[in-house]
Amino acid sequence: MASHTFEPIQQRQVRVWDVIVRLFHWSLVASVALAFLTEDARKLHEFFGYTMVGLIGLRLVWGLIGSHHARFASFVPGPRRLVSYLVDMARGRERRYLGHNPAGGAMVIALLAMLGAIGWTGYLMGTDAYFGDERLEDIHELLANILLVMIGLHVGGVILASLRHSENLVLAMITGQKRADDETTKH
Ligand code: HEM
Ligand code: HEM
Fold first, then answer.
1. Measured in angstroms, how far is the CA atom of residue 113 from the centroid of ligand 2?
2. The pTM is what?
3. Nearest ligand to the C-alpha of residue 133?
4. Fold of 13-176
5. 65-105 pLDDT, tens per residue?
6. Minimal CA–CA distance to 141: which of 125, 159, 165, 154?
7. Alpha-carbon span 103 to 157, nearest angstrom
8. What value does the CA radius of gyration of the chain take, rounded to a whole number of Å?
9. Pocket around ligand 1: residues whose beta carbon is below 6 Å from it?
10. Where are the domains of the chain?
């Protein structure tokens, strides 16, 4: 491949995702997948669903006290930053971020909120007040289906950003390491 600059063979790596974020992510993926797979086995389904709820609870705390890139303050975008990033994306000139980019950060919040809502409707279904309420079951199922679309967008975004900045973001969520920033990278 032709290149106009000499790249050092070993690029400097920095730790971006701490161990809690990484364990959280892959445990969340497993618990959500297992909740879907066990939707007809009620006890198991509830177990994996509540595991997910516990993980979300831990992540909310870690978002306040965790390492820099884990903290909500470092990646939750305001509407202006989000829109300007999306405009940049549409023009194919969005910048690289070490932590979550503004679109990814917004999706993280949407995913956490949606998972919270699914857990909440699931919990309500078991309470006396709502037991056997089919509307609530329908809402729970609808939210789960919307979640699937969001997960598709999330994984699509991860692949797109990986391609655009020539890096493997999935691997980074396993090792915690990313290529150190260059002058165009945002923190
Ligand atoms: C059940 C499905 C999934 C859910 C609910 C989910 C949720 C999340 C959440 C909440 C985060 C934020 C992590 C944090 O800051 O704590 C995240 C990040 C991430 N997820 Fe997922 N995820 C799912 C599936 C996947 C899959 C299948 C992949 C790999 C193909 C993946 C790759 C990533 C990556 C690479 C990041 C970091 C993105 C970045 O570099 O900014 N996720 N995901
Ligand atoms: C990641 C989390 C979850 C996902 C993706 C999820 C998804 C689903 C789906 C797709 C169904 C099938 C709906 C239908 O066919 O009628 C279902 C049913 C159900 N879910 Fe969840 N759910 C989750 C968490 C929970 C939690 C935390 C609870 C709380 C106890 C819960 C309780 C239930 C109940 C009681 C049903 C009805 C099962 C039955 O038909 O007897 N879910 N869920």
1. 16
2. 0.92
3. 2
4. Fumarate Reductase Cytochrome B subunit (1.20.950)
5. 999 999 999 999 999 999 999 999 999 999 999 999 999 99
6. 125
7. 8
8. 19
9. 21, 24-25, 28-29, 32-33, 59, 100, 104, 108, 111-112, 151, 154-155, 158, 169-170, 173
10. 13-176
